[in-house]
């Protein structure tokens, strides 16, 4: 299974988890270092991607498409 497929699987699992709790969060990391956090909001059916930077504040981005956020996460983890 490719890394991108694994990311998509985790995002779909996040959506399923949010059906019970209205929102769910998951971290993505590389070698034990957290690169980002994804929150899925069931009510609005949107994802929020929080990117952790080494020296500056974190940045947040909104997505309503699972494929687009998966590509962003893939790029972050590959950098």
Word description of this protein:
Strand 2 and strand 3 form a beta hairpin. Helix 1 packs across helix 2. The chain has two helices and four strands. It is globular. It is α+β, with helices and mostly antiparallel strands. It has a four-stranded antiparallel β-sheet with strand order 1-2-3-4.
Q: Terminal Cα separation, in Å? A: 20 Å
Radius of gyration: 12 Å
Number of strand elements: 4
Q: Could you state the order of secondary-structure elements as H and E? A: HEEEEH
Query: What coarse outline follows from CA principal-axis ratios?
Result: globular
Outline the biggest β-sheet: 4 strands, antiparallel
Number of helices: 2
The percentage of residues in β strands lies in 35-45%
Strand order of the largest sheet: 1-2-3-4
Structural class, by secondary structure, is alpha+beta
Helix content: 40-55%
Mean pLDDT: 93
Contiguous uncertain segments of 5+ residues: none
Coiled coil: 4-31
Keywords: Coiled coil
Strand and helix map with partners:
Layout: H1 3-21, E1 23-30, E2 33-41, E3 46-51, E4 59-63, H2 66-78
Antiparallel strand pairs: 1-2, 2-3, 3-4
Helix pairs in contact: 1-2
Keywords: Coiled coil
Coiled coil: 4-31
Pfam families: DUF1797 (PF08796)
Q: Summarize this, please?
A:
The protein is an alpha+beta fold. 41% of the residues lie in helices and 35% in strands. Helix 1 (3-21) crosses helix 2.
């Amino acid at each position: 299974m490719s890394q991108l497929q694994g990311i998509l699987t985790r995002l779909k699992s996040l959506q399923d988890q949010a059906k019970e709790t209205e929102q769910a969060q998951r971290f993505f990391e590389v070698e034990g270092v957290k690169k980002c956090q994804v929150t899925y909001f069931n009510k609005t059916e949107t994802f929020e991607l929080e990117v952790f930077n080494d020296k500056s504040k974190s940045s947040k981005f909104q997505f309503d498409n699972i494929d687009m956020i998966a590509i962003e996460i893939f790029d972050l983890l590959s950098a």
